[in-house]
Design goal:
The protein is α+β, with helices and mostly antiparallel strands and 393 residues long. The protein has four domains: 86 residues, no CATH class; 71 residues, no CATH class; 78 residues, no CATH class; 73 residues, no CATH class. It has eight helices and 21 strands. A six-stranded mixed β-sheet has the order 14-8-11-12-13-15. The longest helix is centred in the first third of the chain and has 17 residues.
Length: 393
Amino acid sequence: MASSSPTGSARAGRCCPARICRDNGIVHRLTQPRSPTTTGKIERFHGSLRRELLDDAVPFADLPAAQAAVDAWAGEYNTTRPHQAIGMAVPADRFSTTRAEAERELLPLRLPAVLALAPAPPAPADPPQTEPQTPGTAVPDSPPGPYHGGPVEFARPVPPSGNMEVLGKQFWLGTGRAGMMVTFWASTEVIHLTIARARIKSVRSHLSAADLAKLAASGGRPAGPPPIPAAEPGAAIEAGRAVSKDGHVSLGGRYYIAAEILGGTMVSIRIEQNTLMFFDPATRVLLRTRPSPLTWDQARLLRGARPAGPPPRPSAEPVTVQRVASNTGVIMVTGQKIALGRIHARQIVTVHVAADTITIDLASDDIRTVRRTTTQPVRSIKAQQHRKAAHVS
């Protein structure tokens, strides 16, 4: 259908199309340079507009006159002028047919997540005397109590882009949660995001007491207890982090080694008095253990800090790695040299490292198992990583 705005390009020039698409959950696709056939329909429309209106038009007196002329032409183009490409119908017919109406009726509604009724407030000891209510008369809900400081709760729907914003800070929830209602529990220390009472994420708060008062005045309410109770002094604390490609994680603005083998993965970290325990957040399988440089007061202020769950369990499965045999047929795993023979020189072999044994797959029916004599952890998985001999494990 034809557009009736000649100033659309000017308006588009003053805003960012990519931002408009992102805010509305639309994938912004660009055509290849010098490929007019990619946009054939709009080019065909431009040709009709130029041939039927602009070629014979006198100079317009002003912009409103030009807009009125284009509006009149677009109205005729969409509602009166027949089009051969659609069987001599008009474009408006294609947007008001019974089938189109039925398809619009079948579009699913975008509903928020499952909502639960808030518990009713306790009745006062001596309820005031009120006039009897007529049956069927609706009793208005009582407004939330006045805000006197402290944490605030407020709810907002996730936009189509999946990116929410609260007083200058963005919260990425993904397009898959678009339309869901998110409840924010916010204080000056932490912000919890929940959907249907299930916690989605927790981040360090950027809000001041004045910001909380502003949120309370714009639809917020005094908050109840937080979705995650505060950790008891000295208790273990957990936080989630992404491991950098070189095996480090950021805690409290400083980087600490986790393990290079974990590079590029998401891990959970259990912070105890003297130990950092890195584990898989899905299975709670222990991956690495390091000395903890953090005090309890430092740990509880970390971004996303929460009370720890049960201790992670060690993995019962062997760690599978690859190694390239040297020119003499020797590989090194966990600091242990294993001679395979010159027949395997420069070959890539698969090695399974268990607690007491190391198993090497040499061929389809040639498997060699040796006793493990070191306690060093596995530091690399891929055989293509070239290292100096002093750093190979």
